[in-house]
Amino acid sequence: METEQGYITLSADLMQVLTPEQAWHYRVVPEARKAGTLGFFVDEQAERQAVEQELEMILGRRISLTAVASATIERTLAKYFPQQNRQHVQEKKTVAGGSEDFLLRLIKEAKTLGSSDIHLEIYEARCRVRIRIDGLMVERYLVDKKDYPATVNKIKIMANLDIAEKRLPQDGRIFFSRDGHKFDIRVSVVPTLFGEKVVLRLLNNDATNIDIHTLGFSNFDLEHYLEGVKRPNGMLLISGPTGSGKTTTLYATLKLLNKESRNILTIEDPIEYTLEGVNQVQLRENIGLDFASAMRTFLRQDPDVIMVGEIRDTATANMAIRASLTGHLVLSTIHTNSAWGTVARLIDMGVPPYLLANTLNTSVAQRLLRLLCPHCKRKQPFDEKLFPRHYRPRRPVQVHWTAQGCEQCYFTGYRGRKAVYEVIPIDAELAEKIKRSEFSIDEALEQKHIKSLTENAYDLFERGETSLEEIYPLLFC
């Protein structure tokens, strides 16, 4: 029953027996479903007879209760039924896979928990709902298979998609406005072996709280980055995998550049934030509005700054080069593993090295790392054998901090994320290396005291802000 962490382990189907509001109100945790009876663990201090009678009326089933310690109930509720503010009793709603209430409650719950995506998935024997929190997927609900098609159709209707089309992928958008929550949701539907999978990307429309100084740049890297931003022309590129925070960094940059004296144009897919004073265009490839064609039009719009959501093909790369050569500052993202890898990627796309050397101002790589919960992280002696075999740290570590889990972090051990960066300003020496297509520049970067992604991640680990598990993938870079 109770794990070493002090809470009861629950499966996704048991989590659906009660709403979070009901679980907290009665201080009960589902135990098991048996023929005609529902079993619950209940707080030892609760009035068991009253709880049993009320739950039987609400659920329409016989109830059996098993008393456990208050602390165990508290930890389990905090982990599996998190609520942002338990003082405010919300309206109780019945969770049913095919109901509109279930969808609305699911979206609001995901937004409250800071989730970026909701995944609805169907398999041969079951359907499940997972949400992504701080970069990791967490299973939250199981949906009855007979209710799943109705749930998908309701999402399609909300996103103005074709409910009759089940053979082809579809993309749409929902503007969610309920109970004071206002934000956009990008919807992607794809046919799988047993039915349609749906992913809802929750977009944060408000860019007012984004600040370049709080994203994770070191003072040294921020100084180099801002030098590139202040240049009147050229390209500033940010690389990293999907979900590494590139768009947030770009918007923090646009906030700095957003002055009355500048004309700023963006082409994005999707528009994740809205920023007053910036002219934002949504990509629509189905009608021919792609990154390259939008940039051709932008050049006739008298721009000072152009932001391109992603350089993903040769045409877009060439248009970005052309725009930066004609006196514009171009900001964009690209998928590479390192800041200098951006150079090789663009050359592979067919960009002539001499043009790239003349236009690339700054190349940035970034990743997002989860931060240890400050309330429960624990200091332990460190054994260097825990590092990958090939990795040799510049400074030895005697102790490190590990994730434990508590009520503050929903027993994940982590709370929030922080970006780590590698910023390479392109000076005359590096521009010459680009012209000669030299890709081995570690010695040159070391002489310029430019820290790699690995070194900046190691600094976070050394200061006890994150764990070895979080930085481990970067130790191979």
Describe the structure.
The structure is a single chain. This protein is an alpha/beta fold. The protein is 30% helix and 27% strand. It has a 7-stranded mixed beta sheet with strand order 12-11-13-14-10-15-18, with helices on both faces. Strands 6-5-4-9-8-7 form a 6-stranded antiparallel beta sheet. A 3-stranded mixed beta sheet has the order 1-2-3. Helix 12 runs antiparallel to helix 13 (428-435). The radius of gyration is 26 Å and the shape is globular. The relative contact order is 0.09. The model is unreliable at 85-96 (pLDDT under 50).
Percent of residues in beta strands?
A: 25-35%
**Biggest sheet descriptor:** 7 strands, mixed
Count of beta strands: 18
Please state the overall shape, judged from the principal axes of the Cα atoms: globular
Mean pLDDT: 87
Distance between the termini: 41 Å
Cα-based radius of gyration, to the nearest Å: 26 Å
* SS field, number of helical segments: 16
The main sheet orders its strands as 12-11-13-14-10-15-18
Ranges where pLDDT stays below 50 over 5 or more residues in a row are 85-96
> Portion of residues in helices?
25-40%
Structural class: alpha/beta
Please, what is the oligomeric state?
single chain
Secondary structure layout:
Layout: H1 12-15, H2 20-26, E1 28-34, E2 37-43, H3 48-59, E3 62-68, H4 70-80, H5 100-112, E4 115-122, E5 127-133, E6 136-143, H6 148-158, E7 170-178, E8 181-191, E9 196-203, H7 219-230, E10 234-239, H8 246-257, E11 264-268, E12 279-282, H9 291-298, E13 305-308, H10 314-325, E14 329-334, H11 341-348, H12 353-359, E15 360-372, E16 378-381, E17 399-402, E18 414-425, H13 428-435, H14 442-447, H15 453-462, H16 468-471
Parallel strand pairs: 2-3, 10-14, 10-15, 11-12, 11-13, 13-14
Antiparallel strand pairs: 1-2, 4-5, 4-9, 5-6, 7-8, 8-9, 15-18, 16-17
